[in-house]
Amino acid sequence: MSLLLTxxxxxxxxxxxxxxxxxxATYPGIAIINKLQIEGSEHLESLPxxxxxxVSNHQTYFMDVITLFHIFSAFKxxxxxxxxxxxxxxxxxxxxxxxxxxxxxxxxxxSRLFLLAGGLTVRRTWNExxxxxxxxxxxxxxxxxxxxxxxxxxxxxxxxxxxxxAPARKGTALIIKHHKPIVIPVVIHGFSRxxxxxxxxxxxxxxxxxxxxxxxxxxxxxxxxQEITDQxxxxxxxxxxxxxxxxxxxxx
Length: 252
Fold this sequence. Notes:
Blueprint: H1 2-10, H2 12-32, E1 35-39, E2 52-56, H3 63-76, E3 96-101, H4 102-105, H5 109-115, E4 119-122, H6 139-149, E5 153-156, H7 171-179, E6 182-189, H8 191-194, E7 208-213, H9 225-235, H10 245-251
Parallel strand pairs: 1-7, 2-5, 2-6, 3-4, 3-5
Antiparallel strand pairs: 6-7
């Protein structure tokens, strides 16, 4: 049964169908009801089809990833820093996976459906509702991510939580040290105001959404995991120096 589910997840036909359904359902909230601004699409040019890691801050469980899927598919159809009419989902870009907590992806029928769009589930030892310390990813999950990097792009959220300025796990840095991917930082704004955290519905209209792709990071792969983690957090603007003063005082 598990082998059958794996084959279904890896089926490109199934993945394209899910991208089409989810893409059309979410397009109005991204591009009509709210307004999406995209910057830095030029950094997607000339990227190889594998061993590319997009590292982003995190504001909602699903809409962050779905919006990146929109952007990648639109870019495949020649659209730079814009979506335009979503005919790009007739042949979407599907060589991309995303990392998500196993518990989250089993929480609802919608999340289980979206898992077929390219989800890589991980068993985190930490979650937003607990006070347990973070100890990174399970070794089998790390191998799963590394295998996917051999074939596709991957989107990951090193903080593993939608809480802004939360500390990052070192698992992402360890994967970078071992696999040496091209690392593209992504910074998103406005999603927590526009959309519900756990679904695809909107809670506020007319919100300015923004997605910024930065140039690939120049990473010293011989640096420590903590040093690489600090570099990632600074690049996605989640380090202490990017934290508003009011939050700095609260966390002290």
